[in-house]
Amino acid sequence: MTAATPLLLPDDAANRALVESVHPPAWKNPTPDGRYNLVVIGGGTAGLVSAMGAAGLGAKVALVERHLLGGDCLNFGCVPSKGLLRAARAVRAVREAPAFGVRVGGVELGFAEAIGRMRRLRAEIAPHDSARRLAEMGVDVFLGDARFVARDSIEVASERLSFARAIVATGARAGALSVPGLGEAGPLTNETVFSLTARPRRLVVIGGGPIGCELSQLFRRFGSEVVVIDRGPRLLPRDDEDAASVLGGRFAEEGIEMRLAAKLLRVERTASGKVVAFERDGKSEQVEGDEILVAVGRVPNVEGLDLAAAGVAFGPSGVRVDESLRTTNPHVYAAGDICSAWKFTHAADAMARIALQNALFWGRRKSSALVIPWCTYTDPEIAHVGLERGEAEKRGASTLTVPLREVDRAVLDGEASGFARVHVDRKGRLLGATMVAGHAGDMICEMSLALTAGLSMDTVGATIHPYPTQAEAWKKLGDQWARTKLTPRVYGLLERILRWRR
Predict the structure, then answer these.
(1) Domains in the chain: ranges and CATH
(2) Which pLDDT tens digit goes with each residue over 308-336?
(3) pLDDT for the residue numbered 1
(4) With CB atoms counted within 10 Å of each terminal CB, which end of the chain scores lower, N or C?
(5) Integer Cα distance of 383 and 375 in angstroms
(6) Residue environment code for 48-82, b if the CB has 16+ CB neighbours within 10 A, otherwise e
């Protein structure tokens, strides 16, 4: 990439402001001065938390980033996608307004305005992750490619940085598919889709996971014809099957076509678009789009680091770590997407705190102890924490469910198609929870706290929830758990006591 090539497209004022924060063109790397307590490779969430945390504790810290500080979350993931998803929700709200007695005229779909708003807001958020902020906190920021040259040293921009400890936090990138013709067709990924300036009339999405589902619904609400193709038999294979079914129903209602259990065959460019050929149930099918979006998972960024020079083992899933997040080199740790199966910003943040404490202060914290919730930000949102239903029930757990149609606020909001579900052991302790609701990502936090603190559903049921709220579904589940203890024997005993007291 030459100096004249923009780091982000389109080359507009918002993206130039973003780049000025997260990869300043005029930035000059500092001169290393002695040995660092900590060198962090990668400036995404895990890297930023590690570097800022160490500097705040008085450590001498260097951070190396080859592309954009803020990583995937700020530049290509959470921030841009949620900015556009909010706009897509606004489109849906206007279309649903008549159901609430609100008369509206025609809805004008301003995709260019919505994506422009996202870029402006992203640029406003960027200073939180900026090179200048890091430097002001005492972190030596080096922009360039890092590679290990010894077990205790890296090289970046012809400078050698020696360290007592290092944290590898280089993250992951969009996964690719080996399908004939796909590369030549120029597919979009989450790293390029937010560079669009115009809405594609027809969009083919390959992948029915969280990213594919979020972007499918987003583009459909802005007026694109959307087809989702996935090799699995349903959407969101890691989520509760009933939750995925609710989302599938909403997709069908909104006009998103789904081609599931499909085997991709090839992609071809034609005069009218890009054709994706696939096979289902032994029959050949094809769909045509103006753009193809590939959303099939993440690949760890290990290339170019020369990890072998530091004695750091790695594989297809990334850098290998133990429960303390230490690599096969005891002086090198890792955190975030580079070593975790949980590729979420909040997981990277939590892991970075563990790696930092263990690396600098002889800590013994374990990543296996983390309680990690997740949420897919479709509409409705699907959030989960703890054990899945199958695993919980193998341990003898009971599964309790409250449909949102039984929650007054959800009915009043016109959001009654979801549910709340918990998995509870014989003593009433919470093992896992799923929420499908308009703001499930916010509401799952109560169950995350309950799991972290080892609370029972008795405690959840005894907690007063404001009425009317959708979060009252958790209290209803607590009450439902309490009713399971009212066995015929207990009921008979209570009946005799009350008869005696009359």
Answers:
(1) 13-79+116-173+299-369 (3.50.50.60), 182-296 (3.50.50.60), 380-484 (3.30.390.30)
(2) 999 999 999 999 999 999 999 999 999 99
(3) 44
(4) C
(5) 4
(6) bbbbbbbbeeebbbbbbbbbbbbbbbbbbbbbbbe
